[in-house]
Amino acid sequence: MNNVIVIVSANQVESKKIFETLSEVEASDYRLDFEFLRPTQLPDKLDMKADLIVYNNNTNLNMNMYQQVASWRKKGQLASVLMLSKVADENLIHNVEPMNNMVVLEKPYVESDLKGISQKMLDERKIQQRKYRRFNVAQKVSLSSYKSGFSGESQVCNMSRGGLCIQGGLVGLTAGDLLRIDFNLDKISTHRTVNGKVIWISEYDEQPQAGIEFIKESDVYGHLLDDIG
């Protein structure tokens, strides 16, 4: 199992220092992969499958940083975010929304704190990832959107009780879309219709993939009303 850490920094020296510290994070049952970005490369090159984003901010913490993370969430980027930043206004830290899964580590920080917080954030995400066991399947599904005119067929890559990953036939689909999903479980000769929300969309081997979270039928209208509001 791989955990992807994306280090975002405009300062190469600080980026290297962060990498050296995080390379020591305990990873007994998974491997750490690192990616490096400059702030100017966000959000276009941000890996949608990242587990932890360590953002080295060279200015004082401000609301724009929170708004940037919120925009990532809307696009389906669910990675934990560790913000390294100077803090001029303590109230900004207290106003962090828990749903953003974001932690601020004030500069200057102690390396052991960077390592310890990162370890905890990775472990918590690992638990979330393992909440539902995923099964690799080769299954066709029919998709139709509640919000747009999108409809089509795609291929399931893997499936769990919480959702599924699909690949191909996704032109016109966007993160946040609500779908009716129809498929046959061939091995048990059963037809199923479920509802899902598109959490992320990305390219894999030049094929578009999407992660879909199952939602209750009773929640579909609530999601649609949220968009209207």
What does this structure look like?
Helix content is 26%, strand content 41%. The chain has 229 residues and is α/β, with parallel strands linked by helices. The chain has two domains: 2-129, Response regulator (Rossmann fold), CATH 3.40.50; 135-228, Beta Barrel (Thrombin, subunit H), CATH 2.40.10. The strands form two sheets. A six-stranded antiparallel barrel has the order 6-7-8-11-10-9. It is elongated and about 60 Å long. It starts with a strand and ends with a helix.
Distance between the termini: 40 Å
CATH fold category name of the largest domain: Rossmann fold
* Tally of separate helices: 5
C-alpha-based Rg, rounded: 19 Å
What is the overall shape? elongated
The count of strands amounts to 11
Proportion of residues in extended strands:
35-45%
Largest sheet: 6 strands, antiparallel, barrel
Mean pLDDT: 81
Q: Strand order within the widest sheet?
A: 6-7-8-11-10-9
Oligomer: single chain
SSE series: EHEEHEHEHEEEEEEH
Unreliable segments (pLDDT under 50, ≥5 consecutive)? none
Please estimate the helix content. 25-40%
Q: Give me the CATH architecture of the largest domain, please.
A: 3-Layer(aba) Sandwich
Class based on secondary structure composition and strand pairing = alpha/beta
Using the coordinates above, name the CATH class of the largest domain.
Alpha Beta
CATH superfamily of the largest domain: Response regulator
Q: How would you briefly describe this protein structure?
A:
By secondary structure, the chain is of the alpha/beta class. It has five helices and eleven strands.
